[in-house]
Amino acid sequence: MWGYPKHSEIRLRWFDHWLRDINNDVENDSPVEIFVMGGGSGRKTTNGHLDHGGQWRNESEWPLARTKHQKLFLTSELGLTEKKPQSDKNSITFVYDPDNPVPSAGGGLAHLTEVVPPPGGFTKVPSFGTRSAFYARYGQHIVKWGPVDQVETEWMLGVNPPYHPLDKRPDVLVFQTGILDEDTELTGQVTVKLWISSTAIDTDFTAKLIDVYPPNESYPDGYRMNLSDTILRCRYRNSWSEPEMMVPGQIYPITIILHATSNLFKTGHRIRLDISSSNFPRLDVNPNTGEPMGRHTHKVKAHNTVHLDSTRPSHLILPIIPRESEK
Question: Which residues contact 238 (CB under 8 A, 6 or more apart)?
Answer without folding.
Answer: 244
